[in-house]
## 1
Amino acid sequence: MDLYFSCSLTGGRLDQPAYAAMVAHLQALGHRVLTEHLASETVTASDGGLSPEAVFDRDTAWLRACSAVIAEVSTPSHGVGFEIAYALERGKPVLCLARDGVRVSKMVTGIRQSGFAFRSYADVHEALRHMEAFLASPDGPR
């Protein structure tokens, strides 16, 4: 299945090791992660040469093409919020993950739309279990 992984870039990269583990796990399960580059330590260098318009066009095309979105939302990000809303408006299932104890916007935690799930996790292994459950659930990817 084609998945869109969303995470903070400009808001901070504190969770980059978790991003990398999540993307690697999804790939090990046989999924294609359209945004696998976002988990890289050098993502800002790889996307740095692209214009804002090119990034928008590429990423919205991937959002339209994906089967589901998995977003790590521990670090606030305008882009991640936009991607979540864009996907939901197109009927894409969305899973948002956040580390235990972080404050997440009520605009995210308050979503009650079908196909949306928010889960917190104590460690990356719990996050991986949440992803597996979401991908296997009837309300998750179709």
Note: The chain has one domain: 2-136.
## 2
Amino acid sequence: MIRMMSALTIIVGCQSGCATIKRGHPLEGSAHLSDANTGYYVWVTRPSIWHLRMAVGRDGKAHRFQGSLTGSRGGISELRTTRSDWSESVAVVGDAVQFDVALTQNDGPPGKFGFDVEVAGGCAQLDLYVDGRHEPERVWLGPRSDSPRHLPIERCP
């Protein structure tokens, strides 16, 4: 009986103490781009602000990035690209940002290329291609750099 009471005390104590620790959502916080590999880095800074960056690794090859970020519960209310000359390569079409961009390592440092978008309702569907193929292992989500098992995916912060 005493062991059971001790175990119950530990469980209740942990629950009340653990409730004061707020863990962030796995997508919240910027991605680690310092040693970027070829692919996508995606994170959220507020419940509705999504950041998508494309990076080319050290393989010296040009890579084509295509896809969309679609608002699952509402439309896109604001789009900001990292390059002003991308008006024809990155655009809002309906409830989605669609893009088709070619990059090389010579274009600049990792994380320089991409866009930030406000998504009504916060939830987004990501359909991302590298060189014409779904490659979920080349998609890194949030500061923990988790990769999805498949593409497309839907996430809600």
Note: Strands lie at 39-46, 49-55, 63-71, 76-81, 90-93, 96-103, 113-119, 124-130, 139-141, 153-155.
## 3
Amino acid sequence: MLASLMQKEKADFKKIRIINIGGADPLASLSKDIDLTWIYYGWTGIQAEIRKQELNMIWLKDIDPALDYYTQVFITSEKMIREKPDTVRKVMNAVSKGYAFSVQNPAQAAEILIKHAPKSDPEIIRKSQLWLSLQYQADAPRWGEQKESVWKGYARWMYDNKLITKMIDPDKAYTNEFLPGK
């Protein structure tokens, strides 16, 4: 993916040396060992804000709107859907309630996480949850609802950049069928 992004900007991917930093702190590594890293803004970006560490960040969606794809997706098998659709529906109902609660009550949701993840940094959790609570549903009419155009656009981008060998059928890649209210 990085090579494809660099090619779009006419940059030479071969000049990059990939280093696996494992579980090392990417922000600390940026200040000494590495020049760039891929982060999840909802956690590492918030952590940088708290540390007052300036990031020269590029949002993927600013490079190409097709890169504004869904993250945090729930995956099951076609067999599970076929054989136990009620279980899938119940799981999605419970998950949906949790996300809806987090959207409506970000501070309280953060405190619940802090209680159950006592080794995590409470300040990061609180600020991350405030930011994430605005992202969980974003412009969707309800939490979890996805659009074919997003799946199709991202798949087309991956196919065009030779990251997948054949186009996916978006109708087979996702469903809104098991969301509450459907």
Note: The longest helix spans residues 85-104.
## 4
Amino acid sequence: MSEPASISLGIASRYASALFDLAKDDKALEADTTALAETLAAGADLRAVIASPVISRDDQGKVIAAIGAKLGLSTLMTNTLALMSDKRRLFVLPQFLTALADMIAAEKGEVTAEVTAARALTAAQSKKLAETLKARVGKTVKLNTTVDETLIGGLVVKLGSTMIDTSVKAKLAALQNAMKEVG
């Protein structure tokens, strides 16, 4: 990891840890984190505001306060964001939200699996996959599913440091490599 990225991750982790310790029992923390992450993912303007060194602290603070009010964020989350704005630390907001979501999931005994499929999974397929992964890891598994039609068929599942690739694309690539070795 590059030095600036590790510094950003360290800053984000400290803010997330502090907020999590204060709001661990607060049910609004998970909702706030989800709402803020969705807003950040959807808003290119918001990402530009938090990353720009040209925008003043006051302006960043006003934007964050307005977003907090619009989303109905808890007082603790709003105050944390205001502190981050005041200290010019809003640029770590994406890492902050990721760290916070990870802490919430760990507290609930959940893990997240990144699933890439050739076609959208049905509800029954998602449920079966989650149950199978739960039996393997012993924790509740949340699925983040994306569709990649270039896989042709099958799935690619990333769970922690484990990756299971059952895609037709990977099997064809392995077959192609085996044929190169023969010829």
Note: Residues 111-182 form one domain.
